[in-house]
């Protein structure tokens, strides 16, 4: 089978002919129909993230090994199953939960394999979906698509799930103001999710009026252009000067993070999600005096993916797939994503 693999970071992916894995026990071999092209794939390809003071945080220091087949947003058809798989049948369409853990650490024991101490995520720590087929370690990581389109379902496993987790962690109550910073793919997904699972007033912050208009169409009540005005003042203006009960920062860089913190009302919660890099200087007395909660969110747990797929099936959320590539075009897909040309999601159809 063909797979597009990162052999060395910063060098073009190579299309390799690799052996077809044979599923054993509860393993499942899935024929990939759609693999989402995600910003994390770019970080893998580039070999890391920008940390404080421009220090580069290498993925290899976090246990990633190359060569690697990337791709963690995988939807496809069951091709073959190990002898102990139950509840699924050959030819069934499924979405793969990629955030797999080793199964025994404190996070895994409460079903949060996405934050496992020794992660084994597909497309990051083991071969993923930029391939004709992918070996899924257990049928317990599969969600039935039941009629959902594989191309629009693929990104639910990553950006959708991340947005879902972030909205849940923000914990906005009816009547609260929930600020969403960044109207990219994640932010727009979060607006739709917040609209369907909370009764909060949703405010969205971005520098791009087109994206803000899209957020409004999808259900945001207030839009704030942070390029044209002071976003902190914008939030204060719509909250009688108190600030917001919850803020989700999907950018989370040195520019947005201080503003996100300053938008909070007393007892407010800031959920930090974006991986755009940088560092934040904290006014330490302010955190206790205003009783803030700062928390991070990284992807989400399997149970949340099941809930999210159910929302998608009820047409409560839509993900926009704007570009489709073949496996041979994997490098172009990453280049286009890097250049910022892709609106919504790009997918690879092997
Ligand atoms: Zn992703
Ligand atoms: Zn674990």
UniProtKB/TrEMBL annotation:
Annotated ranges, domain Enoyl reductase (ER): 8-348
CDD domains: 6_hydroxyhexanoate_dh_like
Enzyme class: oxidoreductase
GO BP term, pick one: protein tetramerization
Keywords: Metal-binding, NAD, Oxidoreductase, Zinc
Pfam family membership, one: ADH_N
Known cofactor(s): Zn(2+)
Taxonomic superkingdom: Archaea
Matches recorded under SUPFAM superfamilies: GroES-like (SSF50129), NAD(P)-binding Rossmann-fold domains (SSF51735)
EC number(s) recorded for this UniProt protein: 1.1.1.1
GO function terms (MF aspect): adenyl nucleotide binding; alcohol dehydrogenase (NAD+) activity; anion binding; zinc ion binding
Membership in a protein family: Belongs to the zinc-containing alcohol dehydrogenase family.
Database matches in PANTHER family: D-ARABINOSE 1-DEHYDROGENASE (NADP(+)), L-THREONINE 3-DEHYDROGENASE
Name recorded for this polypeptide: NAD-dependent alcohol dehydrogenase
Species name: Nitrososphaera gargensis (strain Ga9.2)
């Amino acid at each position: 089978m063909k797979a597009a693999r990162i052999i060395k970071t910063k060098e073009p992916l190579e299309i390799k002919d690799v052996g077809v894995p044979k599923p054993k026990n509860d393993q499942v071999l899935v024929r990939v129909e759609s693999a989402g092209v995600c910003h994390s794939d770019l970080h893998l390809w580039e070999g890391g993230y920008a940390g404080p003071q421009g220090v580069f945080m290498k993925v290899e220091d976090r246990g990633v090994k190359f060569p690697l087949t990337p791709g963690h947003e995988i939807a496809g058809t069951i091709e073959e199953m190990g002898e102990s798989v139950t509840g699924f049948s050959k030819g069934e369409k499924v979405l793969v939960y990629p955030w797999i853990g080793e199964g025994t650490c404190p996070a895994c024991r409460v079903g949060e394999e996405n934050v496992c101490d020794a992660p084994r995520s597909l497309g990051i720590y083991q071969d993923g979906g930029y391939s004709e087929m992918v070996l899924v370690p257990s049928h317990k990581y599969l969600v039935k698509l039941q009629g959902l389109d594989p191309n629009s379902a693929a990104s639910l496993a990553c950006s959708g799930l991340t947005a879902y987790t972030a909205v849940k962690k923000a914990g906005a109550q009816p009547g609260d103001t929930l600020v969403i910073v960044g109207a990219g793919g994640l932010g727009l997904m979060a607006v739709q999710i917040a609209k369907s699972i909370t009764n909060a007033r949703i405010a969205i912050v971005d520098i791009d009026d087109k994206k803000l208009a899209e957020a409004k169409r999808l259900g945001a009540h207030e839009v704030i252009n942070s390029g044209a005005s002071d976003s902190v003042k914008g939030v204060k203006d719509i909250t009688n000067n108190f600030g917001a009960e919850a803020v989700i920062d999907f950018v989370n860089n040195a520019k947005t993070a201080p503003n996100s913190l300053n938008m909070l009302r007393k007892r407010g919660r800031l959920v930090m999600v974006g991986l755009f890099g940088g560092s934040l200087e904290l006014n330490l007395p302010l955190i206790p005096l205003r009783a803030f909660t700062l928390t991070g969110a990284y992807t989400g747990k399997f149970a949340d993916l099941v809930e999210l797929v159910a929302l998608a099936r009820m047409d409560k959320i839509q993900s926009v797939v704007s570009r489709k590539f073949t496996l041979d075009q994997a490098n172009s897909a990453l280049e286009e994503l890097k250049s910022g040309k892709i609106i919504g999601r790009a997918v690879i159809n092997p």
